[in-house]
Amino acid sequence: MSEDIRCNIVRSNVVQPIAKNIFFQLDKLSLQEASTFQGADPYFTYRSITVFLPMTNPLLVLYRDYMIDQAYIDPITGENRKYLIVSDPAMHILNGHWEWICTRVRGT
Description:
Layout: E1 2-10, E2 19-28, H1 31-34, E3 45-50, E4 66-73, E5 80-85, E6 90-92, E7 97-105
Antiparallel strand pairs: 1-2, 1-4, 2-3, 3-7, 4-5, 5-7, 6-7
């Protein structure tokens, strides 16, 4: 199952977003694959793919950065949905896309 979203990418200690209004395809992971990421919630773990980031800097997006959804609001927190990157982001130059695993952060 896939979902298309539009996000800003932010780093917790940086004021300005790393990238704005980037479109992503989120694919749900199987329970077995999601369980390999310790601490990740298997029901809210996704493979994120985008072709809208530049291919010039392999360190543009890092582990523990956040994707902030620009369209959907978390009903519990009343804020934009947030996804935490839980894998090492990979830049695939030959295919022209970025890919990583992320977990949706749920409100408390």
